[in-house]
Amino acid sequence: MRSRPHGTATPNHPTKGPLVTTGAHIRHQTAPNPDGCRWCGYDKPHGWQYLPGKGSHQWEQPTNAQRLARMQARRNARKATT
C-alpha cells in the first residue's frame, strides 16, 4: 500500500482521512544530520549497521536530494519550536 497525502482521495481510497503508510520505520526523533549515512542517517564513525529492507551496510554518502530534505526538515523543526 502506498502513502497518500492527508485528506486526499484516490480511486483505491475514495474517502478522506489520515495519512496511510505501511512498513514505515521511524529511526530518528529529529531529522538526521544532512551528511549522515544514506541508508540510516547515522554519522561517521558508522561501522556496520543493520536496517530492515537494506540489511547490513557501511556508511554511504547521502544523495543531494536526501541532504536537501534533511536540511529542510531540520529547519522546519526549528521553526515549529519557536
Overview of the structural elements:
This protein is of the alpha+beta class and 82 residues long. 22% of the residues lie in helices and 7% in strands. It contains one helix and two strands, in the order ββα. A two-stranded antiparallel ribbon has the order 1-2. It is elongated and about 40 Å long. Mean pLDDT is 74; it is low at 1-24.
Structural class of the helices, strands and pairings? alpha+beta
Sheet-strand content, in percent, reads: 5-15%
Distance from N terminus to C terminus (CA atoms, Å) equals 36 Å
H/E element string? EEH
Low-pLDDT runs of 5+ residues are 1-24
What is the typical, i.e. mean, pLDDT? 74
Main sheet: strand order: 1-2
Largest sheet entry: 2 strands, antiparallel
Helix percent reads 10-25%
Q: What's the total number of strands?
A: 2
Q: How many DSSP helices?
A: 1
Rg on CA atoms, Å = 16 Å
Topology readout:
Elements: E1 49-51, E2 55-57, H1 64-81
Antiparallel strand pairs: 1-2
